[in-house]
Design a protein that fits this description.
583 residues, alpha+beta, 2,3-Dihydroxybiphenyl 1,2-Dioxygenase, domain 1, Glutaredoxin, 2 domains, 9-stranded mixed beta sheet, 8-stranded mixed beta sheet, 12 helices, 28 strands, 19% helix, 25% strand, elongated, disordered N terminus, disordered C terminus, VOC domain-containing protein, VOC_core, Thioredoxin-like_sf, GLOD4
């Protein structure tokens, strides 16, 4: 069947987006890519659990994704750096040969032209100097190219990019090869078998030769492909010597393409035509340099690794993706172009990386937190019932939206604080390593249960700051102490209390989520505590300052102001300091 009938992608309605790397150190990789190649972080996201499309590989725990490149992902190829917490290295395989990057031998510009050579981009001398400062060895080849290794051992080929015409002037921006990332080179077991997937099934156009492809190999049995009209990097397929099988190791990556047509449409059409096997099938075998004959397996050139799925990002439209594999195991991510364009659109702060929070979670070589089993058990005992656990950024976003005003009419408060302006939800921020958090856990659960039983419609949550680090950024200036109790409405904190005092917690809850009967909360010693300015114990003054001063920030109270008060500091990377308890 002709390639043109294989699907919408065959008509040039797709382009290369990015290659996915697994990295053992995000900071080290960004330093390498930034110093040597001039790339920068474009956007960054943290996730509490593995990606349902396995973007981070076969790992179910906490991970992060950082897009790194030269500019807009809508027009330039990028790298997706996935970091799995607790995984410091990955066994390399034989899937990715290298990525070719523009590197101009000689100089571009001159003082008379207004550009000093040392400040011109893509200069070979500058790239090698930066690599040497980082201790990265350079391997020089007979054709003048140079290979550099990333901190994880990935190979980057520096190619003198004069044949594409991109080395001089901005006019070359529209030329094929103008993207600074020139080529993605993959090993395959059998070239003819690989071309059945990439050329015939996906509909990529094959270059007549490698002469016009910067960085093209001189090895035999190689091919170069692009989607028609795509000016990004070429895909190079090179057959392994003696037809050896591809070893994907643990570091295997993924090549992503944006397609104007729905990934689900392309996926379904490839299935209908028998060009790929359904999800859950084994990969089509490669036997003696050709696909095994007979039946559906003989026709298929790959399989569906993941059926089409919509991936969600808070504040952004869903992005539809479908994940395929060729017979060598190389992964392909088909991404809906419309959703991706909105996801990749620049927004202030999208590239922010909270290195302190990452360090506290054991990221990038820092020691992971050591939970105390007894403290973890205390929090586990307090969950359930009316106190709901928040385990992801998505759940945090949902919890930050208070119930509709009609469900919980605000009660006038004498303090006039922001919390009285409408209904709120309450989130307890804690750490399993914090003894003060464990001490107040059951008290919070009992108070929340009592308030709900008396008709309060506010919902009560708790979140481990190690599991949901986004919670740290909800408070102006950053959340630096736990336990912290946050009254949230419309995605922002409107009042807060930090500490473990039973009395102050009761007053805070009665103020932000007042029971309809106007009565307070009975403490373990029999005292009844109400909202600020309406306490049955008749104590106001300094004791009422927490909520009266509350705004989008932490309360000013600390240890020593109340019996049993205490907290644990989480703001310093690698260290947590506890406050003394007041007897």
């Amino acid at each position: 069947m002709a390639a043109a009938s294989a699907g919408p992608a065959a008509r040039g309605e797709a382009r290369a987006l990015h290659w996915v790397f697994k990295v053992g150190s995000l900071s080290g990789t960004l330093r390498f890519l930034g110093s040597v190649f001039g790339m920068r972080a474009l956007r960054h996201e943290e996730f509490a659990s593995g990606c349902e499309a396995t973007c981070n590989g076969p790992y179910g725990g906490r991970w992060s994704k950082t897009m790194c490149g030269y500019g807009s992902e809508d027009s330039l190829f990028a790298f997706e750096l996935t970091y799995n917490y607790g995984v410091g290295s990955y066994k390399r395989g034989t899937d990715l040969r290298h990525i070719a990057i523009r590197s101009i031998e000689g100089t571009v510009g001159s003082p008379s032209a207004g550009v000093e050579p040392q400040f011109a981009p893509f200069q070979r001398a500058n790239q090698l100097d930066a690599a040497a400062r980082l201790g990265v060895p350079a391997s020089r080849h007979a054709d003048g190219s140079v290979t550099l290794s990333s901190p994880d051992g990935y190979q980057f080929l520096l190619v003198d990019d004069t044949c594409s015409g991109a080395a001089t002037g901005p006019a070359a921006k529209s030329a094929v090869g103008s993207d600074p990332v020139l080529l993605v080179s993959l090993w395959v077991q059998n070239l003819a078998a690989a071309l059945r997937f990439w050329e015939e099934s996906l509909g990529m156009a094959r270059e007549p030769s490698g002469d016009a492809v910067p960085g093209a190999t001189s090895l035999p049995n190689a091919a170069w492909l692009r989607f028609r009209g795509d000016s990004g990097p070429a895909l190079e397929l090179v057959e392994l010597p003696s037809g050896a099988a591809v070893d994907r190791g643990e570091s295997f990556g993924r090549l992503a393409f944006a397609t104007l047509h729905s990934p689900a449409l392309i996926h379904d059409r490839l299935l209908e035509e028998g060009r790929i096997l359904p999800e859950g099938s084994d990969l089509p075998p490669v036997v003696s340099g050709a696909f095994a004959a007979g039946g559906e397996v003989g026709r298929a050139s790959g399989r569906a690794l993941h059926s089409p799925v919509a991936l969600s990002t808070p504040g952004k439209p869903d992005v539809e993706v479908a994940i395929l594999q060729d017979a060598n195991g190389h992964e392909v991510c088909l991404v809906g172009a419309a959703g991706f364009s909105a996801l990749a659109a620049h927004s202030p702060g999208a590239d922010f990386i909270n290195w302190t929070a990452r360090a506290l979670l054991g990221g990038d070589g820092h020691s992971p937190p050591s939970p105390d089993p007894d403290l973890a058990a205390a929090h586990a005992a307090s969950s359930g019932g009316v106190v709901e656990d928040i385990c992801s950024e998505r759940e945090l976003a949902a919890a930050s939206r208070a119930p509709p005003p009609s469900l919980s009419p605000p009660r006038p408060h004498q303090d006039g604080g922001a919390a009285s302006a409408g209904p709120v939800n309450v989130i307890k921020a804690y750490g399993v390593w914090c003894k003060h958090c464990a001490k107040v856990a059951l008290k919070y659960s009992l108070m929340a249960s009592g308030l709900r039983a008396r008709g309060v419609q506010a919902r009560f949550y708790q979140a481990d700051v190690d599991m949901v680090p986004q919670l740290l950024a909800m408070v102006d200036g950053g959340l630096s102490r736990v336990p912290a109790f946050l009254a949230v409405r419309d995605g922002r904190v409107v009042a807060s209390y930090t500490g473990s005092s039973e009395r102050r917690l009761a007053r805070f809850l009665c103020t932000v989520a007042p029971p309809g009967d106007g009565a307070g909360i009975t403490l373990s010693d029999g005292r009844v505590i109400g909202a600020v300015g309406a306490e049955s114990e008749g104590s106001s003054g300094a004791a009422g300052s927490s909520v009266a001063k509350a705004k989008c920030g932490l309360s000013e109270e600390g240890a020593g102001h109340d019996a049993g008060e205490g907290w644990t500091t989480v703001g310093a990377a690698g260290a947590r300091g506890e406050s003394p308890e007041d007897g």
